[in-house]
Every structure is written in structure tokens, then in C-alpha cells.
Amino acid sequence: MSEPAHHSTWTTFGLMEVGESTLGVNIANLTEVQPIDGLSPLMVSHPAFLGAMRLRGRLIPVFDPRVLCGFPRTDTPPAIAAIMAHEERLVALAVDEITGLAKADEAALQRLESGGAAGAVCSSEGSTTTAA
């Protein structure tokens, strides 16, 4: 009997720089990017939570992707919010720069199982980190 063929699932990601790493956000979830003019504190105790930004009358929680992937937080204030939607909720990741688009084989990505980042994945190759 022959083995079943491996079917690759390719996904397009919006690429962003976060410190020394590149972050990829699945474009199916990426709604927009906005500059972060300021963050308001909220009563949230998650270590990756940076604050909330106002966008068209809504408060959107902003998280540090470095902390979500197990790296230490930096003192540099966040510059850009990558805003993502899931169902009716919006959440943002703080990034330094928007750099483009790329396709990746889902089989090459390792899902992040802890840290409150459901749907986030960290690549097993190089320094690429992605959030699905």
C-alpha cells in the first residue's frame, strides 16, 4: 500500500518587524494597521498586556508579541498596532514596522500552546514568529 500524499496548506501572512524578529499575522485575521498614539491602562493582569488604544470609539487591547512568545518585554514604546479580528472581537499586537506579505506552509509552523496566545504560532525555523 502506498502512503497518503502530504498536502501542504499555504497561508498568506502580513509581515511585521518586532525588535530583531519578524512577525507574521494571517491576513484572514488582520483587519488593519494603525499608529499607536497612546495607550490607556485597563484592569488586566496578563504580562503581555500593554494597554488599550482607542479606534473609532472602541477600546482595543494591545499586547506585546515578544512576551506572548516567551521573550522579555522591552522599554521601547510600541509604534504600530496590527489589529486583528476574531468573530466580533478586536485585539492588537504592538509592532515596530510593516514589511510586506509572505506565504508559509502551515506544516512548518509550531503552534504556541501557552501564554494566553491562542491561535499564535512560532516558527521552528529562523527567527520568524507568526500569529494565526
Describe this structure as you would to a colleague.
This protein is mainly beta. It contains one helix and eleven strands. It has a six-stranded mixed sheet with strand order 8-1-2-11-10-9. It has a five-stranded mixed sheet with strand order 3-6-7-5-4. The longest helix has 4 residues, at 65-68.
The gross shape turns out to be: globular
**Number of helical elements:** 1
CATH architecture: Beta Barrel
Count of discrete domains: 1
- Largest sheet: number of strands, sense, barrel closure: 6 strands, mixed
* Total E-strand runs: 11
CATH topology-level name: OB fold (Dihydrolipoamide Acetyltransferase, E2P)
Structural class: mainly beta
- Uncertain segments are 113-121, 123-132
First-last Cα distance = 36 Å
Quaternary organisation of the protein chains: single chain
Please tell me how large the radius of gyration is. Answer: 16 Å
Beta-strand level of the residues, as a percent range?
A: over 45%
**Class, according to the CATH hierarchy?**
Mainly Beta
| Run of helices and strands | EEEEEHEEEEEE
Strand order of the largest sheet: 8-1-2-11-10-9
Task: Provide key terms for this protein.
globular; six-stranded mixed sheet; five-stranded mixed sheet; disordered C terminus; 1 helix; 132 residues; OB fold (Dihydrolipoamide Acetyltransferase, E2P); mainly beta
